[in-house]
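Chain particulars:
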Amino acid sequence: MSSNNKVMIEAKGLSKFYGPFVAIKDITFAIPEGKIVAFLGPNGAGKSTTMKILTGYLAPSEGSCAIAGLDIRTQRLEASKQLGYLPENGPLYQNMTPQELLNFFGEVRGIEGDALQKRLNDIIKQCSIELVLEKPIDKLSRGYKQRVGLAQALLHDPSVLIMDEPTAGLDPNQIREFRKNIQELGKSKTILISTHILQEVEAIADYVLFVNNGKLVFEGNT
């Protein structure tokens, strides 16, 4: 991908082996600032493994990766300040309410007092979760869980957003809403979103990375 913009998500020769099993092999790409990029491929192709490595949840067997120019392994804390991550199964701590979850993550990230309150107000409104703030997360619909997960990922106002199959299990209306949210966020953030749905790529992305059997087999504009 050619661009004069700063590279915000970079993978260099990423591989992950589990004994003889190859989850991903030699994946390399660079995503510049301000792009919405779809990470496309069938289930089991290696998308989630790559995303877990990019976000620091997994260590690669080979290769390196960086967020906003910060190496995920050697500059983990600095990189995490630039990164919001929405995993496939949404928010953690299902017994908490969204309000408790967001307060907790705000404090963990060192946002306090008036600054936290202002950020919470903005994010709650942006993700439209006002009506469920006091309900336990495990009692929420899949759509609301995804909104809470997105609110948690955006809480510290990261410059990079990585989402793993964010519309899986949502109904058509929820999918439309979520895609609208992503397009709006793309105006101010660099986004990498994994999916196995071709229509998703056409609806939201301006660039695509296609992975199959653990290898990057195509990249180009949508």
Observations:
- The mean pLDDT is 92.
- The chain has seven helices and ten strands.
- The longest strand covers residues 7-18.
- The helical segments are 47-54, 76-81, 98-108, 113-126, 142-154, 172-185, 198-204.
